[in-house]
Design brief:
Length: 686
Amino acid sequence: MDVTIRMNSCILGAAVLLLAFSSCAERAHAAKSGRMFWAFQPPCRHSPPPVHDTAWSHSPVDRFLLAGQEKRGLHPAVPADRLTLLRRVTIDLIGLPPTPAEVDAFLAERRPDAFRRVVDRLLASPAFGERWGRHWLDVARYADSSGKGDNLTYHEAWRYRDYVVAAFNADKPFDRFVREQIAGDLLPAASQAQRDEQLTATGFLVVGPKILANRDVEQRKMDVVDDQVDTIGRAFLGLTLGCARCHNHKIDPIPTTDYYALAGILASTRTLEGIKVNNPAVSGWSLRPLGADGEKLLAARRSHEEKLQQVRIALNRVRSEADGDEHRRRVEEMTRTEKQIENDLPPAPPLVMAVRDDDHPGDIRVNRRGNPHALGKRVPRGFLSVLSTGPGPSIPADRSGRLELADWLASPENPLTARVFVNRVWMHLFGEGLVRSVDNFGIQGEPTTHPELLDDLAVRFMEQGWSVKWLVRTLVLSQAYQMAVTEDHQAAQIDPDNRLLWRANRRRLEAEVIRDAMLVVAGRLDRSLGGSAVADLGEQAVRNDNSPTALTPEQQTRRSIYLPIIRNNLSPILDVFDFADPDVSTGRRDATTVPTQALYLMNSRFVLEQAQAAADRLLSQPEAGRLSTLYRLAVGRHPTASEVSRARLFLSGFRRQGADAAEHEKDAWTALCQVVFASTEFRFVE
């Protein structure tokens, strides 16, 4: 009987161990058991393997890839032609097609370092930060509104967006970029400008979606913390930490206590603050002033606003009283006081969405089943056991622990941060990551196709000062990047998914590139940098009838990165062409090809307007060069003889004699421009 009881107890104890790592010893056991997984091992340098075709390999990247191909009897595709390569690298690095002048210059260049010169020019362009900043904004789940029920406008979110663009243009070391977004307000600053920049960076923690009208204050707070934990996990570590909010992670060695160790750090951080829309039930978000006198100016303005509010309340009360000579005199006197206070209102300092440490930081308790009102044991603030060695972090009692978290995430000893980012860059340049599940490096994610290459790149990336531009330059100068998109039936049978990268991948352009390219052809693209996209929006980004309260993206001509991103109300072109869901961290967008895309290109007012503007541009030139100009602007090349013949036949179908000949001519060229916009070649990069 005693044996049976002991056996049942052991079975029960084992079940409890598997389902709830509730003690430090259990957390240590979980970490030890999962630490053998490849992604949780520190990356290390690897010597490039020997290859037979030594002439093809120009870099370690090439040798790693070629070795894998040779083992399977594959060989690399031929190099892409110069025009194809120029269009590919220009779109990849700055998100715009090359100009005819850039094409002519590159095709005429015969120096051996011609392509390197192109790459350096593109890396130095302000458009580089716009292109690669947009990639990061997907990961940061950036938007200009809160989404959810109230969908309030984030009037200050653009400052974080511009910080990201500037960081990529300045080649800010990625480890520094990580630290600033998690704890920029806690880092030392040598100047006010640096302080403001670092403060702005913490918008990463604030710009996520929020249910601001939840009357359950604790639930509202923990939902924000959950968004932050999940985003940090996906963005920097490639792990789905949010799965451990309610129970131990079902796949990865991440116990619930690890989740609440991280959640305690973010629960000790003030993200929600004040109220919005004059409703005590609707929370605001943390806004902090910029500038040396920002705090003083903000305090003075808020004091003045409170005084003004009190006068208005009193004035409304007096107005409701019985009328009379004395009553009118009091109303007039109080109205003058109201106007005087309004006129004396101190200037508002520029504000930024940014966090601050809570006045009372501390550890939190496990929320059983994710319920903040069903509390379990208290968990010391800390990091993931499976990625940590030695004793836990020493977090001062009066601090949140964000600075320590930032240092841990950006540490060279962290096995995931560099790997995950290198893989993201690889995916944007080659079409697929070395780990294809770019946001999931966990056990359920896809295994890496080239583990030694990924590790070697991660280590060299860190050794090169975490330089993003070094990494991009290294990859695009490889022979592997410069291969053609070829068809090889025999190779396709061996490696149908091109996992060994024996050829380049044909890729559909993102929504922003398609839109910006149309504006380029139309001659209407506004290249000005930065600034607010929602300055004219009220507190609510979308009215109750789902109508936007400002200009839509179809009515604007700025680069797409500067369009308003309104949650639950995306622009049609972004929606149709698989824009990232701004509610969640997204490292890899879908790239569908569906009928709605063709219908949009056929019927969209925006597309038609750009086609009309392009037609006007072409009609201002001599007739003989119009078709060539259109093709060179749109796809970078001259039309073929067959395309010229078909275009002339197409145009002739719109031409009519009579008083409206000029109008018919414009209609014809407008239709032709729209056909080119809808073509596969325009929407894809080889």
